[in-house]
Specification:
Number of strands: 0
Strand content: under 5%
Distance between the termini: 84 Å
Radius of gyration: 38 Å
């Protein structure tokens, strides 16, 4: 092979090798860019998902807190009204003037009737708690609402005893006991509500 041909072949082979090297380099660079773009896209998508989850958790916590507070306030209205009725009944003494006794009896009966109406409205607030969840909050709401029933019974029994002139100290004691027991159930509801609305509480992310 003469020198001219050898030089020509060398040039062709060198150019081919150079072209292959440039193509391989471009392919590797493209693959790296593609991988970086994919990683960046996945990272951004993960950040968006985390942000959406955080916002969903905050919204759920706020919604639950609102439901729990509404129920607790409605419950306290019923409980407080029954307490006022008991105070009226407890203020009736045998030696009081008839018109004063009658005024206290009427006021106690009116308060008991109004508390009954409020207790029916409390059912709707309790249903909201059921929807908001979690399940143990529904149980706590049911227990708190149910604890008011004996208080109603104690007050109306006392009221009937006053009407019939058969009142004894037992009526006041029974009302006080039921009133206190019911309040204990509300406290349990509130403690559970506090746990359910903590930022890192186990129930915040529950559906």
């Amino acid at each position: 092979m003469d020198a001219g041909l050898a030089g020509l072949l060398g040039g062709v082979i060198g150019a081919a090798v150079g072209a292959v090297g440039a193509t391989a380099s471009a392919w590797i660079t493209g693959r790296k860019a593609e991988q970086q773009a994919r990683i960046q896209s996945e990272t951004q998508l993960g950040q968006v998902r985390l942000q959406m989850e955080a916002e969903r958790t905050l919204a759920l916590r706020a919604s639950r807190k609102s439901a729990y507070l509404a129920f607790a306030e409605g419950w306290s209205q019923v409980h407080g009204m029954l307490g006022e009725a008991a105070l009226k009944l407890g203020g009736i003494a045998p030696g009081d003037p008839p018109d004063e006794r009658e005024e206290r009896r009427r006021t106690a009966r009116r308060l008991w009737t109004e508390a009954t109406a409020l207790h029916h409205r409390l059912d709707r607030l309790m249903h909201v708690v059921y929807v908001e969840g979690p399940g143990r909050m529904a149980d706590a709401a049911q227990a708190a609402s149910g604890a008011l029933v004996p208080v109603f019974g104690a007050v109306v029994d006392w009221l009937h005893a006053v009407d019939d002139g058969t009142e004894t100290s037992h009526h006041a004691t029974e009302q006080t006991t039921r009133h206190s027991e019911a309040y204990g159930k509300l406290l349990q509801f509130l403690y559970s509500a506090s746990d359910a609305t903590l930022p890192d509480g186990p129930d915040v992310r529950d559906p």
